[in-house]
Amino acid sequence: MRDYDANTAAYLADRTAAHIHILYWFKAKNRTTGAVETLGLWTGDDHQDFTIGGDVRTYYGAGTVAGTETLTYETGLSVRTHRIPFKGLKPEIEQLLKGYDPRLAPVEMHRVFYDPDTAQQIAPPTRIFTGSIDAAPVTVPAKGGTVKVEVAVVGAARSLTIPLSLKKSDEVQKLRGGDRFRRYIDVSGQTDVWWGETRASTSPPPAPVTTVPER
């Protein structure tokens, strides 16, 4: 069961109309500079600053986020995918998908409650999800249609599905910025190695020779 602060608990116990917004915080690498940058989006109508963890974050709205799915919480190692639909390819979305490298970029989701009568924030945003981007397909419609963008994010359980390093080849590693750590993996364990004056060899030692004296 989730714990709420006193203001939020009283607000939910009142059973009045709930006014809720979802905040999305992305952290991705800039394709041009290589620096890690952040981008905030939310379901609100305009840009707004929120204080989260002592830091002030700017979240862009203006109808960018089309909606949000209901999060499902469960114990276990199941990898659930949560989809975030966006309204067209707006500048903020274009920056996330084209200006940044969204592959496996960390994602945080927060929920914030508002008083429906005063439109005032009830309490600081509460984190409800931590994960990473799994896919970000862009569907280009026929002439006159609207571009469809949907970012799929997965939870931390996804990290448990990463294959063992034993299955990574040199060709795959070279795609990671020219990493040549596995350059000699094909001959590993088959090459004699010299350590100081002692020669280490993977080949088996010669069989002992037994000499039989002549009579």
Q: Helix and strand succession?
A: HEEEEEHEEEEEHEE
From the structure provided, what is the oligomeric state, counting identical versus distinct chains? single chain
Q: Helix/strand-derived class?
A: mainly beta
Query: Helix coverage percent of residues?
Result: 10-25%
Q: What's the gyration radius in Å?
A: 28 Å
User: Biggest sheet, in brief?
Assistant: 10 strands, mixed
DSSP summary, beta strand count: 12
Number of structural units classed as domains = 1
The count of helical stretches stands at 3
Q: Report the β-strand fraction as a percent range.
A: 25-35%
Intertermini distance: 92 Å
- Using the alpha-carbon principal axes, give the shape: elongated
**Average pLDDT value?**
79
Low-confidence stretches: none
Can you describe this structure?
The chain has helices at 6-13, 91-99, 170-174; strands at 19-30, 36-42, 48-52, 55-60, 81-87, 100-101, 106-114, 126-135, 138-139, 148-155, 193-195, 198-200. It is mostly beta strands and 215 residues long. The chain has one domain (6-163). Strands 1, 2, 3, 4, 5, 6, 7, 8, 9 and 10 form a ten-stranded mixed sheet that branches. Strands 11-12 form a two-stranded antiparallel ribbon. A hairpin with a 2-residue loop joins strand 11 (193-195) and strand 12. It is elongated. The model has no long low-confidence stretch (mean pLDDT 79). Residues 196-215 are annotated as: Disordered.
